[in-house]
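Board notes, transcribed. Complex of a protein with adenosine-5'-diphosphate.
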Amino acid sequence: MESLLQVNHIEKTYGKGETTFKALNDVSFTIDHGEFVGIMGPSGAGKSTLLNVLATIDTPTAGDILVDGKNIATLDEEALSDFRRDHLGFIFQDYNLLDSLTVRENILLPLAVSKTPVKETRQLVDTLAERFGITHILEQYPYQISGGQKQRTAVCRALISNPLLIFADEPTGALDSKSATDLLETLAGLNEAETTIMMVTHDAYAASFCRRVLYIQDGRLSKELIRGATSRDAFYEAILEELKGGASDDAV
Ligand code: ADP
């Protein structure tokens, strides 16, 4: 399978002079088309830094990132913002919806500067909303809907531009357990329909929906778990075991 994301020896150093801090240290991995990869690790391990660098929101101090063979380090600010808009989708813990816009308008936001005809974009939103069960709230505002519905809105917004890759940052962090499970099943379903997803989470249950989990510790990749043919329940147990091991390492 051809790799969609190739991360080569990434480093990220914060600060200058004697107060520098290496948040990412020689991180390399690839994500293939159609994968669902979880990124786990303790607080402060570098997960958000990694996500920000991959999502082109921040730049690495060293190393290359290739998306579909294209080296994004060589793009200027304008090209990066085009790239982000056209090829990446984002789902955040706090939804990042605009309160002054309706659900429909929020979903349309990534297409605001595109040249897609209005009739076509309307159709796109209607199709996505139906698929994710939010047709009845399209004309409502974010403050009028539940957390689960907000995250479904965010999923539709992430999908509207038909992105190559979706980044999810603790997407279940603010949801109750039923809505969290709904969302994770939605993401797994999207992945079965061949959407490539990278999800940062500290939660073993959320990670168990992934096909592969990468652990990051002190800015370095420390381990990889692959679900393979095992059930989600068995993968969940394996992740918990791994976390226990990591915790006892910390205590030494
Ligand atoms: P995680 O998401 O795994 O909790 P982060 O990527 O947020 O970890 O942070 C990794 C490390 O980098 C932490 O030690 C954090 O304090 C540090 N860090 C993050 N952002 C900055 C910044 N802007 N300036 C300095 N240090 C930072």
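The beta strands are 3-14, 21-32, 36-40, 62-67, 70-71, 88-92, 165-169, 196-200, 212-217, 220-226. The CA atoms of residues 225 and 238 lie 8 Å apart.
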